[in-house]
Specification:
Blueprint: E1 3-7, E2 10-13, E3 18-25, E4 33-39, E5 46-51, E6 57-59, E7 67-72, E8 77-82, E9 91-99, E10 103-106, E11 110-115
Parallel strand pairs: 2-11
Antiparallel strand pairs: 1-3, 3-8, 4-5, 4-9, 5-6, 7-8, 9-10, 9-11
Length: 116
């Protein structure tokens, strides 16, 4: 059974930092592209950052230069370092595992709240 478990969310002041982690189990982690998505209050889910199995990264324009995604295949983990946080970064953050022709797995999310 595939499980993605996010951790590291919380309340932080604007300008602060947080690190989110996603622990994956039940899948061949190294084969999957990993990603972080978020759903702000009252809005749709949006892409934050992705990292391919070859470690190629992509970021949403709104977080470019502030967030960093990386993966540790030896620990089956995908992490998101978030710096210079803004109130508009407030959202439920989800971990995603994607493998072409096999589909996607999602975690249950971790809440990040950035206060002014």
């Amino acid at each position: 059974q595939v499980q993605l478990v996010e951790s590291g969310g919380g309340l932080v002041q604007a300008g602060g930092s947080l690190r989110l982690s996603c622990a994956a189990s039940g899948l061949l982690f190294g084969m999957y592209d990993m990603g972080w998505y978020r759903q702000p209050p009252g809005k749709e889910r949006e892409l934050v950052a992705t990292i391919t199995r070859s470690a190629v990264t992509k970021y949403a324009a709104s977080v470019e230069g502030r967030f960093t995604i990386w993966r540790d295949n030896s620990k089956n983990m995908a992490n998101l370092e978030m710096a210079s946080l803004k109130p508009e970064d407030t959202a439920l953050y989800y971990c995603n595992a994607h493998l072409s022709n096999f589909g996607d797995y999602w975690g249950k999310g971790t809440l990040v709240t950035v206060s002014k």
